[in-house]
Amino acid sequence: MIRCCIFDLDGTLLDTLKALTRTTSLVLEHFGYGPVDEDHIKQFVGDGYKNQMKRALRYSGDEELVHFQESLPLYMELFAENCMYQVKPYDGIRELLEALKSRGISIAVLSNKPHARTVENIETIFGKGYFDYVAGEQPGIPRKPDPAGVRRILDRFRVKPEECLYFGDTSTDMQTGLGAGLVTVGVTWGFRDRTELESFHPQYVISDPREVFGKILC
């Protein structure tokens, strides 16, 4: 029996691509580089904003990461201003969440996005208290794919790994869910393609939120 569902944020619950692209491009512009396109941002994100900026700077020509340390506080400042830029839930997500809640299934968010911005995204779109638990990147807690964040949620809800679904759209997410022993679901409506997700052999790969109640939960 599934008692809990944990969702990644970017590319899984919410389409945040324009906000991520805008913020990253503004940081690059500060250092005299041109903007980055959305297709590259899809590949840069997933394992924290620091790695995202490393990839963006190298893509722009800063191979030695001369501007890396300076870019980090600037990114956080600009992201605070732009993190809701054209953000929206993916089609079918609201309906999926309502169906899960109606069945008494706990729902949680676990993201590598900075915690304050994770909370802002979730509360702006879904409302405060809609999710049973929301966590972004925080000091002292290793980011995904380390299973520490997942284990905190399992402990909080008092559920076993096999009683929990994990939804995500990147290789980081597949490693997170599988590494923590959860029933892992790759979603293809986000930032990465089916081939990448299937290469990690999750239990399920779906292309529409409505498949959850036809393929996974009956």
Describe the structure.
The protein is of the alpha/beta class and 218 residues long. The protein has 10 helices and 8 strands. The strands form 2 sheets. The protein has a 6-stranded parallel sheet, sandwiched between helices. A two-stranded antiparallel sheet has the order 2-3. Helix 1 packs across helix 4 and helix 3 packs across helix 4. The protein is globular and about 55 Å long. The model has no long low-confidence stretch (mean pLDDT 97).
What's the quick description here?
The protein has about 220 residues and is an alpha/beta fold.
What key phrases describe this protein's structure?
218 residues, alpha/beta, two-stranded antiparallel sheet
Task: Present the secondary structure layout.
Blueprint: E1 4-7, E2 14-15, H1 17-30, H2 38-44, H3 49-60, H4 68-82, E3 88-89, H5 93-102, E4 106-114, H6 115-126, E5 133-137, H7 148-157, E6 164-168, H8 171-179, E7 183-187, H9 194-198, E8 204-206, H10 212-216
Parallel strand pairs: 1-4, 1-6, 4-5, 6-7, 7-8
Antiparallel strand pairs: 2-3
Helix pairs in contact: 1-4, 3-4
